[in-house]
Each structure stands twice: as C-alpha cells, then as structure tokens.
Amino acid sequence: MVKFITICGLLALGGCAGNETIDINTDVKVQKVEILYCPAPPEVARPILPIHQMTTEQKQNAGEVAKHYKATVKTLMGYSKELEKVVDKQKEINTEYEKKKTELDAPVTPTEK
C-alpha cells in the first residue's frame, strides 16, 4: 500500500514538472451600461371621511347625515383624482423607461478608434 501511494505521488509530481506553458488572454473590454432607474410612487395619505366623524346626535338628524355623505363623496372624489395623477405619472415614467430600454437594446455598430 505504501509503495502504491509513493508511486502515485511521484507520478503526480512528475506530471507537473513539464515545460509546457499556458497562454492566457488578458484582454479586457470595458462595457459601459446605463442603469435604468424608476422612482417609487409617492405615498398618498388616505383622507379622514366626514361620515366617520359624526356624533350620535348628528346621526339622528337626516339632514346632517346627508351633508356628511355629500362631504364624504367629495373627499373620496378628490382622493381618487390624486391617485389617478400618481398612476398617470407612473405610466409616463414607464413609457420613458421603455423608450430608453429599446435604445439600449438596439444593436450598436462598432466604432473605430
């Protein structure tokens, strides 16, 4: 067993002792890539609805309930308009992103130095 290990060790060391050289290609090509960034959408705070601020006395009066419902509807319409503005801005950013992406994905012709 000892002879076998000794022979294997000598063969392994003998295999590394050759005069062969290995050529390694070390050419480096610098590639600049533009980073596409999309900002996070702004946070739109949920409104406090007037209908939830009614007292028990106001809930007994039909006129007060109607006024609070009207104010709640107006508040929710304003809130939905704010959300639509955010969505429209994100759509605009997305189209700009897609344009830039197609520009970057287009094949580039090599330029001469």
Sequence-ordered SSE layout with sheet pairings:
Elements: H1 2-16, H2 56-60, H3 62-105
In short:
The protein is 57% helix and 0% strand.
Account of the 3D structure:
The chain has 113 residues and is mainly alpha-helical. It has a domain at 41-106. Helix content is 57%, strand content 0%. The chain has 3 helices and no strands. The chain has helices spanning 2-16, 56-60, 62-105. The longest helix is centred in the last third of the chain and has 44 residues, at 62-105. The radius of gyration is 36 Å and the shape is elongated. The relative contact order is 0.10. The model has no long low-confidence stretch (mean pLDDT 83).
The biggest sheet amounts to:
none
Radius of gyration: 36 Å
How many helices does DSSP assign?
A: 3
- Seen as an oligomer or otherwise, the chain set is single chain
**Share of helix among residues?**
55-70%
The portion of residues forming beta strands comes to: under 5%
Form type:
elongated
Number of strands: 0
The low-confidence runs, each spanning 5 or more residues with pLDDT under 50, are none
Roughly how many Å apart are the termini?
64 Å
Mean pLDDT: 83
Name the features.
113 residues, mainly alpha, 57% helix
